[in-house]
Design a protein that fits this description.
CATH architecture of the largest domain: Orthogonal Bundle
Number of domains: 2
CATH topology of the largest domain: Transferase(Phosphotransferase), domain 1
Distance between the termini: 48 Å
Keywords: ATP-binding, Kinase, Nucleotide-binding, Phosphoprotein, Serine/threonine-protein kinase, Transferase
Oligomer: single chain
Helix content: 25-40%
Family: Belongs to the protein kinase superfamily. STE Ser/Thr protein kinase family. MAP kinase kinase subfamily.
EC number: 2.7.12.2
Catalytic activity: L-tyrosyl-[protein] + ATP = O-phospho-L-tyrosyl-[protein] + ADP + H(+); L-threonyl-[protein] + ATP = O-phospho-L-threonyl-[protein] + ADP + H(+); L-seryl-[protein] + ATP = O-phospho-L-seryl-[protein] + ADP + H(+)
Pfam family, one: Pkinase
CATH class of the largest domain: Mainly Alpha
Length: about 325
Amino acid sequence: MFKRRKNPKGLMLNPNAKPKDELVDNQKTFEHNMETFMEQCANVNQRPACISDLSNQNLTVVRRLGEGNGGAVALVKYKNLYMARKTVYVGANTKLQKQILRELGILHHCRSPFIIGFYGAFLNENSICLCVEYMDCGSLDAILREGGPIPLDILGCIINSMVKGLIYLYNVMHIIHRDLKPSNVIINSLGYIKLCDFGVSGELVNSIAHTFVGTSTYMSPERICGGDYSVKSDIWSLGITIIELATQELPWCFSGVNEPMGILDVMHCIVQEDPPRLPDSFPEDLRLFVDACLHKDPNLRASPQELCAMPYFQYTLMKNVDVASWASQFRSL
């Protein structure tokens, strides 16, 4: 029997989710904005140079940054360039190692201000080392722990960047992220907000799955039930991520005795209970945006295109927010 948990932030469930056709406000505006966005991505010089001689011998370790999905992350220096090196164990299968390196090569073609830059990858014994752009303000989960709930104006910019990053992955790179959550959204002191740790390599995703036990809190109901993973599964994770950033609380993880809810309890809630909602104290347009992300039925859940057409997203496009000044307070080397 599942024990009821207290709800200190007042998150509410959504018994009356609105039908999908009420979520699209202005498709023509969306199409125009997306055409402009894709043109900007095509013309912007956001792709780091490919470095052919990456190896541990050519990298100086500055300090440890932490643990990412399935591997350790370190700040390293290549000549005068700082980068983040992530090491993921993949095993001794030579054929598999070469396949992963080949699949990762697609990242050299990524040109978006909303996606982490990729310098290259190399093999080190039975591990793959990925070298990516270093973001000096860290990930949103660390910022959330240090600074508390994200201010609403900053949150709008973060949501805008996450949605644009997902659209770029889907429409241009033909990639589903598969692991969207605050720890996979990173920011720098220039105010850039970027997605990282997305599923570009199926074999690397499988290797991580065998070495890393992650949280299921951001998983969509259909994924927990063994259904196909789709773009809509990422949108569910987006909705849960927004609630966490706005409230500093994860839905379903409340406890009256200061103990975390068990993973089976969480998975039961995701599948069996109504979707969570933001409290009424948040702006209505933002609450409707989150509701659109969190339909239990993926066929009713908003697509990235429909999210872009919603009033809240259009509002964030018009706001001029100094993200850099806010982010700089969390800057490390």
